[in-house]
Amino acid sequence: MAGEFELISKYFAKQKLTRGDVELSQGDDCALLISPPGTQIAVSTDSLVAGTHFLENANSKWIGHKALASNISDLAAMGAEPAWVSMAISLPEPDEKWLEGFCEGFFSLADAHNLQLIGGDTTRGPLSITLTIQGFVPIGKALLRSGAQIGDKVFVSGTLGNSHAGLEVILDKEKRLLPNASVLEKSHYCASSRANFGMLLRDKASSCIDISDGLISDIKHIMARSNVGADLHCDKLPVSQELVEFCQDKQTAQNYALKSGEEYELCFTVPQHLIESVRQVAENESVQITEIGEITDSKMLKLFRNNKALQENVAGFDHFRS
Ligand code: ADP
Ligand code: MG
């Protein structure tokens, strides 16, 4: 059975070092990193715990992807450029087949973002992965949750709702019989984050957040930090064709879009005079963006469908309430 140090050298120390700002990577007590002048370092940590964020028997390649995608998404939401990541992993046993899949998912996404694994910790225990990611943003240019202004328009990237439908497929055998079940299950684990697009929103978006707990929950974070309200038009929420087929109608799909977490799309606000420029950037990047509402002075979240106010109160995800 492989020991701790064999596992580290076989699985975690094999990424080619291509970044000039990593003076010393794994292997010593600390990594030594050089931050570019004129930048701030954006830092974020996310954990994925078996039984809470994924089922123990889920495809390990997808888990490797998802663990990193959720961290990259936090950098994207700040407009930061991914640079370095460290990993604390706890494994019940040294299951090499599991590790091979995990590393395949993790390193293919890391390499695609020129992101270096610079260190970590490997221990035995219940399956869980905690990543700390670091990226650069020019001083003062980070996208914050606190900048939304009354009159700004609210946008989202991509489509929403697939992740929630995928989770239903994972948890409920009967849903596996519905159209597109396996595509949606995969999109729950393999959503991609918007690192490049986030960077391009610097100087354009007034606030930004990534959709990790669900649109309702996440827009409320922008509202609280910016001290504003928002009107959202549910009939405008972008949903995939796969989801509409799974739900059998568009309105149900758009209800999924309101609460679906772990989407890793961006929700951002844009002052009216910058909307055209944001649309241009999105088009150049081939990122679909959709205007879904407006920032208001009401301090409340109001939902509309076909311009009629809705009464229903849809909650987002909260680990200690749901
Ligand atoms: P220490 O005893 O100083 O904490 P370790 O023996 O835990 O060091 O780890 C040895 C080296 O391997 C360190 O440089 C550490 O950063 C790296 N390392 C351990 N686990 C991982 C991992 N899961 N991913 C990346 N690097 C790791
Ligand atoms: Mg250690």
Automatic annotation (TrEMBL):
Residues 150-303 form the PurM-like C-terminal domain. Mg(2+) 4 binds at residues 29, 44, 74. Signal peptide: none annotated. Residues 27-137 form the PurM-like N-terminal domain. GO terms for biological process: thiamine biosynthetic process; thiamine diphosphate biosynthetic process. Mg(2+) 2 binds at residues 46, 74. Substrate binds at residues 53, 262, 317. Gene3D superfamilies: PurM-like C-terminal domain, PurM-like, N-terminal domain. Mg(2+) 3 binds at residues 29, 74, 210. One of its GO terms (molecular function) is ATP binding. The keyword Repeat does not apply. InterPro entries: PurM-like_C_dom (IPR010918), PurM-like_C_sf (IPR036676), PurM-like_N (IPR016188), PurM-like_N_sf (IPR036921), ThiL-like (IPR006283). Mg(2+) 1 binds at residues 45-46, 121. It catalyses: thiamine phosphate + ATP = thiamine diphosphate + ADP. Its EC number is 2.7.4.16. ATP binds at residues 120-121, 145, 212. Pfam families: AIRS (PF00586), AIRS_C (PF02769). It is an enzyme of class 2 (transferase). NCBIfam families: thiL (TIGR01379). PANTHER family: THIAMINE-MONOPHOSPHATE KINASE. Belongs to the thiamine-monophosphate kinase family. Catalyzes the ATP-dependent phosphorylation of thiamine-monophosphate (TMP) to form thiamine-pyrophosphate (TPP), the active form of vitamin B1. Reaction mechanism of ThiL seems to utilize a direct, inline transfer of the gamma-phosphate of ATP to TMP rather than a phosphorylated enzyme intermediate. This is Thiamine-monophosphate kinase. It comes from Vibrio inusitatus NBRC 102082.
